[in-house]
Amino acid sequence: MSFFDKFKSFTAGPSVSDLWNHPQTEDDIRAIFEPGAGPQLIYKHSFACHICTYSLMDLEKQLGTIKEKAGAHFIDVRAQRPLSNLVAELSGIQHQSPQAILLHKGEAFWHDSHSGIRSAVLLEALGEL
Predict the structure, then answer these.
(1) Which pTM was predicted?
(2) Taking CA atoms, which of 47, 104, 105, 129 is between 20 and 30 Å from 32?
(3) 3-state secondary structure at position 112
(4) Domain with 59 in it
(5) Is 89 inside any structural domain?
(6) CA distances to 18, 21, 46, 57, 65 from 49, in Å
(7) Is 68 part of a structural domain of the chain?
(8) CA distance to 21, 48, 54, 121, per residue, from 124 (Å)
(9) Domain-located, residue 91
């Protein structure tokens, strides 16, 4: 792979792991917020944002471990704006991207955005549940 191909691949953003769930409807989002759904991670991402690229790459390093403890849901904020807005409404947390929201019993237990999204901190929060 040439330098240009590597640069083009990086600037296009990372590929998204198959381990993520991809909610498609408002009903899918509402189900994530059900109190009996268990711990759930919602990650809101913009492919146009370099900070999102870094946070996604960090989360995906530990995504297998995260998925052992919680459902993991990926929302493309540009392509799925209504779903992103519904997450903000149901969680009571103002939209940002990137943004990670950990739900416990249907309520926001932990959240962060931008460079505050780190897999180590998320795993710590999951350990508190």
Answers:
(1) 0.88
(2) 47
(3) strand
(4) 22-128
(5) yes
(6) 21, 21, 6, 13, 25
(7) yes
(8) 22, 29, 19, 5
(9) yes
CB 7 within 8 A of CB 64: no
pLDDT, tens digit, 9 for 90 and up, residues 27-52: 999 999 999 999 999 999 999 999 99
Has residue 2 been placed in a domain? no
Question: Domain tally for the chain?
Answer: 1
Dist. CA 5–CA 11, nearest whole Å: 10
Which pLDDT does position 15 carry in this prediction? 79
* CA separation, residue 105 to residues 6, 17, 19, 35, 91 (Å): 42, 26, 22, 4, 12
- What the block records as the tokens of 40 is 């759930």
Q: Are 85 and 42 in contact (CB under 8 A)?
A: no
CATH no. for residue 91? 3.40.30.10
